[in-house]
Amino acid sequence: MSKYKRITTQIKDEGLLRKALEDVGLPFEQGEGLALYGYEGKRRRETAEVVIRRRHIGSVANDLGFHRLGDGSYEVIISEYDRRTRGQKILDQVRQRYAYHGVCQKAQAKGYTVVEQVEDDGVIRLRLSAY
Amino acid sequence: MSQPHTIEIEITAQGEVKATVQGVKGAACADISRFLDELGDVVEDRATTEMYEQPAATSSYTSVGGGQG
């Protein structure tokens, strides 16, 4: 072994985000400044460009939003309640699938051969090889 | 990419990316996984022993043990 690196994934690429959401399998909406609604149906202050509606998350969940910032990155809009419940799990899945597609896309662009090792512990393992 | 090598990637359930570069010696190693930095914030980045070894092509003979005895 020669070098070890750890990166916390930040959502910055709309295309990768869309692929990640498709993998997670929940319906989502895309648009400019979409309104977000809380669990009682009240409109929240925040808006987002990508939204998973609360009915797909849970009976007392709030909408889960991805709000695009000026630098092109996405800020996640999730309530404190959802962070403790299913919303966070969905967000984790989105981040994992985003990272997966991000690594594959960047590695293939660099000419690596990518082999995926399927594990059942919830961790995705990839081997990138250059010859 | 001059030297054959592999990068082992682990993506945790929370979407954290852990990358280990294998098979590259010397300074070249530091650059190899840099393309992954765009994925987010690099929170840990460290060399392991192999990085401090010289690449085979430029290494000179190193005496091990012996001495003036």
What does this structure look like?
The complex is a heterodimer of chains A (131) and B (69). With 131 residues, chain A is of the alpha+beta class. Chain A has a domain at 14-103. Chain A is built from three helices and seven strands; from the N terminus they run E-H-E-E-E-E-H-H-E-E. Chain A has helices spanning 14-24, 80-84, 86-109, and strands spanning 3-9, 29-37, 43-52, 64-68, 74-77, 113-117, 124-130. A four-stranded antiparallel β-sheet of chain A has the order 2-3-4-5, with no helix packed on it. Chain A has a two-stranded antiparallel ribbon with strand order 6-7. In chain A, a hairpin with a 5-residue loop joins strand 4 (64-68) and strand 5 (74-77). In chain A, helix 1 crosses helix 3 (86-109). The model of chain A has no long low-confidence stretch (mean pLDDT 94). Chain B is 7% helix and 32% strand. Chain B is globular and about 30 Å long. In chain B, a hairpin with a 4-residue loop joins strand 1 and strand 2. Chain B has 69 residues and is mainly β. Chain B has a domain at 1-40. The A-B interface holds A 1-10, 12, 92-100, 102-103, 106-107, 110-112, 122-131 and B 1, 4-25, 29-30, 32-33, 35-51. Strand 1 (3-9) of chain A pairs antiparallel with strand 2 (16-22) of chain B, so a sheet runs across the interface.
* Biggest sheet details of chain B: 2 strands, antiparallel
Which segments of chain B are poorly predicted (pLDDT under 50) over 5 or more consecutive residues? 57-63, 65-69
**Numbering strands along the chain, what is their spatial order in the largest sheet of chain A?**
2-3-4-5
Beta-strand percent range of chain A: 35-45%
**SSE topology string of chain A:** EHEEEEHHEE
The neighbouring-strand order within the major sheet of chain B is 1-2
* Class by SSE composition of chain B: mainly beta
Mean pLDDT of chain B: 76
- Uncertain runs of chain A are none
Distance between the termini of chain A: 17 Å
Annotation field: number of helices of chain B? 1
Tally of DSSP helical segments of chain A:
3
User: Strand pairing plus helix content of chain A: what structural class?
Assistant: alpha+beta
